[in-house]
Amino acid sequence: MDIAQRLEQELEQAVTRATGPECPPRLAEALHYAVFPGGARIRPRLCLAVARACGDSNFVAATAAAAAIELLHCASLVHDDLPCFDNAGIRRGKPSVHCAFGERTAVLAGDALIVLAFEQLAIRLALSPDRLAPITRIVAAAVGGPNGICAGQAWENEDKIDIVNYQRAKTGALFAACTMAGAAAAGLEPQAWQTLGYAIGEAFQVADDLRDVAGQAQDLGKPTGQDAANHCPNFVDELGFDGAMQRFEHHLAAALAAIPPCPGAEQLGLQITAVSRSLVTGLSARQAA
């Protein structure tokens, strides 16, 4: 089975378990709606790509980690779109969860997805305690405090925001979890893979800022101009379009240089480059003006 198919099957199994007959129907529908159909699945695919590059052959631990990370990412999107945060009405080309099911159900759906992520790790890695503990710790650190995505979101509530620390926590932390968990799933020391994850996350965040300013909502599947509307830091505002594009290229180069020695390093580099460049293809300073 292709590892991308394996990922979708893992997600389907997890969500099906969480939306069984005893689950309130509206919550069950919201959970499935939040996860399927997915977006590009960039984060879990990165986790699986790292595991493969490290020589993993069975992908059981890697798939569990990738699915958990995607469930957490979906939870963060549900909460991020709420009126108290970005107040975004569209996500992945359809109404946001709170628009489709109401705010109270959206809050609960996001909470349930967070719990489901760790339940999935516990179930799938029960027979691999040597993998369970390090992967769970990696994933948990990426979503909580002091440097996880919850902390990243919380920076928006502060009077002064350091854009580097803000973006590193809000975006980079989960990408670092992807690379570290992928390595840990393959039985390697994960710490060596942290720098790569943060560099990819920084490149992705700059690309996201560029897309927010110069992209088209119909292409992105979500509203543009959200940073300006919500007074959030944006690298295009800080550096200009050309400066932000240069920063993107800098972070991409740093990511490629940070790939630790491994059997599949060359192929991993090609994958990272292709996915990263696809995010900014077609954007122009004229659109951002």
Please describe what this structure looks like.
The chain is mostly helical. It has a single domain (3-288), classed as Farnesyl Diphosphate Synthase. The protein is built from 15 helices and 2 strands. The relative contact order is 0.12.
- CATH second-level architecture: Orthogonal Bundle
Number of domains: 1
- Percent of residues in helices: over 70%
Give the neighbour order of strands across the main sheet: 1-2
Distance between the termini: 46 Å
Category by helix and strand content: mainly alpha
Secondary-structure element series: HHHHEEHHHHHHHHHHH
CATH first level: Mainly Alpha
State the shape. globular
Structural Rg: 18 Å
- Count of helices? 15
Describe, in short, the structure shown.
The chain is mostly helical and 289 residues long. It has helices at residues 3-18, 25-35, 42-53, 60-80, 97-101, 103-124, 129-143, 149-154, 163-185, 194-214, 217-220, 226-229, 235-257, 265-280, 285-288, and strands at 90-91, 94-95. It has a single domain (3-288), classed as Farnesyl Diphosphate Synthase (Orthogonal Bundle), CATH 1.10.600.10.
